[in-house]
Amino acid sequence: MISKSLPRRTFLRGLGTAIALPWLEAMMPASAWAASTGGKKPPLRLAFFYVPNGVHVPDWKPSGEGALTRLPWILEPLESVKDRVLVLTGLTCDKARPNGDGPGDHARAASAFLTCAQPRKTAGADIRVGISVDQLAAKFIGKETRFPSLELGTERGRQAGNCDSGYSCAYSSNISWQSESTPVAKEIDPRQLFERLFGNGDPQEMAESRDRRLLYRRSILDFVLDDARALRSQLGHKDQQKLDEYLTGVREIERRLALLERQGEMSAPDGVQAPAGIPAEYGEHVRLMFDMLALAFQSDLTRVATFMYANEGSNRPYRQIGIAEGHHDLSHHEGNPEKQAKIRAINRFHMEQFAYFLQKLASIQEGNGTLLDNTMIVYGSAIGDGNRHNHDDLPILVAGGGGGTLKTGRAVQYARETPVANLWVSLLQRLELPIHQFGDSNGKLDGLF
């Protein structure tokens, strides 16, 4: 075992490569991490997952408050982690409503979800909404990590043009806003995300490293073998095992990317041209992004993230579960039982992917708990029922342990018209940020911690 502690910001380095490490016991005594948390607990992470077009409410909403003994059909994939989930009802995103601006619910929903501000109705360059809660958190805690925040998704979306009844495409394509006029574009290409997370930031070296890997079919880990061997020889058995598991995770993602590329599966649905690194199968696309986000949290590359399953108003088909019709078209079911069955199937498919992510975090040991114990993850939408386009009684989940303080495994009903911004204030305060008001908040939520 090493005689002195490792710095928290230890990297394995090689040509164009910088692989951050997970938390190891050897880091705790004098690491920057321990110093920033009083030497007691790992840091908290905060993430927001957005689903478009609302949900099929009858199969989402629990029958009452209290313990989650029996999950609604859409939420059933969460069974193995239901003790780490809160189902919140009664929350409202008022700024997604017209409030005098007429049609455009989808654009308003996405842009108002994390900003809780009314977007200016324009398809021009004069877009305006407000800073989002994730970016506010990143302003305070982002300096602690290599990436202040990560913005991820599966559909690129345009940043200009008219996408919804006179609203700019920037509104429906983004939930993360650095300022009232600056959306933060999301990364949708798994290959590009991989290179970003594990590159050293030198464009020339990173390009050379990737060219060599592609030419000789080598792993990115081949470039850090010397560093890895030297480090491993200094670690105790438990840390060696944790390091091996982490590097195996990196290699497995790299292997999946390479396999998809060799098989020529990198293409978008319906023949639409896509970046070279995007899997044709939507579920694999989502899971690749989730796996890399888990690694980014595990190695403390970031503590703040957002993920959009698709742009708001997306009309993506879900052929992998036998649904050829577009999601948005189906959401306007007008009571048609066949369409409702397909909508709830899409909702459950989204939930299956989310459950996969939570289970992934729950499998990663960190300190005296797991990575899931040290996260706060919001899943939801600023549209309730996609057929009604309502923005009250939203489908909202909060998952994770919140550093051991979230009172999970419950359904909680709040008074109707309670601003969802109150939840954002509560989460920001859990990060120990001096925030008492955000957007249209009028307090904080009771009963969470």
What does this structure look like?
The protein is an alpha/beta fold. It is built from 12 helices and 16 strands. A hairpin with a 2-residue loop joins β7 and β8. The longest helix is centred in the middle third of the chain and has 26 residues. About 5% of the residues have low confidence.
Number of helices: 12
Specify the structural class. Answer: alpha/beta
CATH class of the largest domain: Alpha Beta
End-to-end gap: 38 Å
Share of β-strand residues:
5-15%
- Helical fraction equals 25-40%
Structurally, the number of domains stands at 2
Topology:
Blueprint: E1 11-14, E2 17-20, H1 32-36, E3 45-50, E4 66-67, E5 85-92, H2 105-113, H3 133-141, E6 150-153, E7 162-164, E8 167-168, H4 169-173, E9 177-179, E10 182-183, H5 190-198, H6 203-216, H7 225-232, H8 237-262, H9 282-298, E11 304-308, H10 327-331, H11 337-362, E12 365-366, E13 369-370, E14 375-380, E15 396-399, E16 410-419, H12 421-430
Parallel strand pairs: 3-11, 3-14, 5-16, 6-11
Antiparallel strand pairs: 1-2, 4-16, 5-15, 7-8, 9-10, 12-13, 14-15
Helix pairs in contact: 5-9, 8-9, 9-11
Keywords for this entry:
449 residues; alpha/beta; Alkaline Phosphatase, subunit A; 2 domains; 8-stranded mixed β-sheet; 16 strands; globular
Please summarize what this structure is.
With 449 residues, the protein is of the alpha/beta class. The chain has helices at residues 32-36, 105-113, 133-141, 169-173, 190-198, 203-216, 225-232, 237-262, 282-298, 327-331, 337-362, 421-430, and strands at 11-14, 17-20, 45-50, 66-67, 85-92, 150-153, 162-164, 167-168, 177-179, 182-183, 304-308, 365-366, 369-370, 375-380, 396-399, 410-419.
